[in-house]
Structures are given as structure tokens and as C-alpha cells.
Amino acid sequence: MKYYLATVLTKGKKEEIGLYAQDRKDANNQAKLKINGIIIKVVEAQEPLDVQFKRFKANLFKNVQKKKIKPDALIAAIRQLAVMTNAGISIHDSLHEIAVSSEDTTLNTVFQKLADDINSGLSLSASLENFEFEVGNLTIAMVKLGEKTGNLDESLYALADMLEEIRANFIKFKKAMAYPRNVMIAMAVAFTVLISFVVPKFKAMFEKLNVDLPLPTQILLTLEYVFNNYGPYLIAFLVIFFMVFKYLVTNYKHIRRGWHKLLLKTYLIGNIIKFSTLSRFTLVFSELIRAGIPIAEALDTAIAMIDNLPLKSQLQSVRITVEKGGTLNKGLDDTDLFENMIIQMVRAGEDSGTLDTMIKKVAEYYKMKFDAIIDGLSEAIEPIMLFIIAALVILLALGIFLPMWDLGSAINGK
């Protein structure tokens, strides 16, 4: 969004009013709707510092306060909406009824607003786009599919199944991470206690020796000094850093793209993101193709629900290839995301007219790959965990005992 200044003549006086818009045409339209008076001109301007600060503060707290709808509540609501839609109840009444009966406050707020938007003439998918954070891109993509095909209830049933599968994978992920997480928390607590209470005792003794201390001991004493003198400030800094980082990632696309690119290059996390994204993309794409949506349009809808920006850009090139008259398998091959076996399967599907079936099989393949990563998560993390534990133990042991050994050697030398 860009910042514009509208010069307005009101009651014989000129005044400048700031507003945000996508472009100058949008700014002119907004000025005509929102501002009373004669609009003289609308020009793009530099956003004042005080306005920037107010917007930063408002967005920062808005991002922190945002809450997603609980997965269980969303799945139940989607299933209920599918049943009511299938029974012929209007979308507005269905949404209102679900909002009233739900105990999830976020779902209640979102669905009530959706009902109001439907009443004012918006489509369900257009209204859902205002709640992308709360409901997720997959929900928006599947609702769009239902509206395009006229089978909203079927799309909602399929969406509920997908969300249940994602929920099951998340639970599996949490279980796989439980043991490593608990071990690392226990080690962190033990290390903090040692640094805060044990190391200071040795510090006093080392200071009396008045000798050059080895590097591990210097590191330990530095950590002890930082923990005991700047601990609260360090925690406050980390909290503020997290809030600012979240704000920057949410509001600046180039920063979000860099963060997503870094995640894709991170050990284990990169594969989890890649295969979960490709699994969902191919699953939604196969549903769209099966429903008779043209390939280019199906690609648009399926790509829209992808969160990772580098992956999204790579898959958007497939849409461009297809638009130019190229084949789907050529577009997928150019992305370097898909294995040769997958490209061959898609080519066979295009040649035989069974593309939807082949894409469905591809989705099952990526789901299998993703499940295998989740199942082997504990084993993959164990080497990292052992390395960190070993490093902390060695640091403590060398930091405390090396000066004592040096002292013992000096005494024996005498």
C-alpha cells in the first residue's frame, strides 16, 4: 500500500488528508467515497514519521493479538457448514448458526463477519480472503473451488478431510518432537542453574588464583556475567526482537521471502516445508482438474494457497508456461522441484487424458514422503541433540576443571 495526500477544499479552507491505496486511481476513488468536500488533487507523498510510527505500533499489536481458529473448532465448523449447505440451508443462515453455537471466540467473530458480508452481497470466498490468517489459504482455495463448480458442499467435505489430515500430521509432529524438546528444556534449565549459582562459586576461587584462565573458563565466566547482570534485559530484548521480526515478516514481502528462502535451506525443516507444500498443491490441483476447471485456472487457485514465497514463485512459472501453450509436464520440469518420475507420470496423464488421476497419485506420493519425514523426525534430530548436549557438558567440564588441573600441575612442579 502506498501513501497519498488528498488536497481538499472544505468550508472555504484547504486541508491535506492522508490515505493508503494500491495506486493513484484507487486513491482517487477512496477520496471521493470517504472525504467530504471538493477534492483538488491527489498525489503520492512520503509518509510522515509520526504516521509511520502510529501505523507500525497499530500493526505490531494487531499481529501479536491475532489468533487462529483452533483446528478442531474449524474442522467441526466446516463439516457443519457442509451438512447445512447440502440440506439446502442458506450460507448466511448456516454461518450465523455456527457462529452462535461455537465456543471458540475467534471462530464466532470470523463466522459472524462472514455472515454479514454474505448479507451485503459478497461471495463466501471473497469474504474469507479478509481472514486468511485465521482460516488459512487451503480453506479459501477449496471454497473457491466449490463456488466455481457449484458443488460447495462437496468441496467443504473434502476440505474438512484435508484439515483433519493436516491436524493428524501436526499431532504426529508434536509427538515426534516431545522427547527431544523435553531433553533440551531439561538441559537448558540445568545449564542456567549451573551458570547462575555454581559457576559464581568457582569464579571467586579463580579470581584469588590470579592466573591466566583457559578459553572454556573465560566463556563460562562471560556467560555467568551476562546471565546474572543482564538476564532480564536479555529476555526483554528477545521478546521485543520476536515481535519486531514477526511484524517485519508479516508486512514486508522481501523480508518474508528471504526468511522463507532461509527456512527452505535449513536442515530437515526445508524438506518438511517442501513436501507438505507439494502434497497440498497437488491434492488441491487434482481436485480442481477432476471438477473440470481449466488447467491454467486450476493452477492459479492451487498456487494461491501456498504460503512459502520462493516455492510459490517457482510454481507460478508453471502457469506462465501453460498460458504460452506449453505442456504441464514441461512447466513442472522447469521448476526443478519435481523428480523425473513425477514428470513422466504427468506426461502419461496428459497423453492418456487421465491427468486428474495421475495428479492424485502424485499427491499420494508426496503425502507418503511427508509422512516418512515426520515418522523419522526423532531419529533425524537425535544427532543434533546429542551434539548440543555434548558441547554443553564439555564446556562445563573444561571450564571448571582445566584451571584446577593447571593449579595441581603448578603445585606438583614446586
The rough form would be described as globular
Structural class: mainly alpha
| Unreliable spans | none
Largest sheet: 3 strands, antiparallel
Task: Explain the overall architecture.
This protein has 414 residues and is mainly alpha-helical. Helices cover 79% and strands 6% of the residues. Strands 2-1-3 form a 3-stranded antiparallel sheet. A hairpin with a 2-residue loop joins strand 1 and strand 2. Helix 10 packs across helix 11 and helix 12 packs antiparallel against helix 13. The longest helix is centred in the middle third of the chain and has 58 residues. The radius of gyration is 29 Å and the shape is globular. The mean pLDDT is 83.
In short:
The protein has 414 residues and is mainly alpha-helical. It has 18 helices and 3 strands.
What is the secondary structure topology, with strand pairs?
Layout: E1 2-10, E2 13-21, H1 24-34, E3 38-44, H2 49-65, H3 71-86, H4 91-101, H5 105-119, H6 124-128, H7 132-135, H8 137-149, H9 152-209, H10 215-251, H11 253-265, H12 269-290, H13 295-304, H14 309-323, H15 328-334, H16 340-352, H17 355-375, H18 377-413
Antiparallel strand pairs: 1-2, 1-3
Helix pairs in contact: 2-10, 3-4, 3-9, 4-5, 8-9, 8-12, 9-10, 9-18, 10-11, 10-18, 11-12, 12-13, 12-17, 13-14, 14-15, 15-16, 16-17
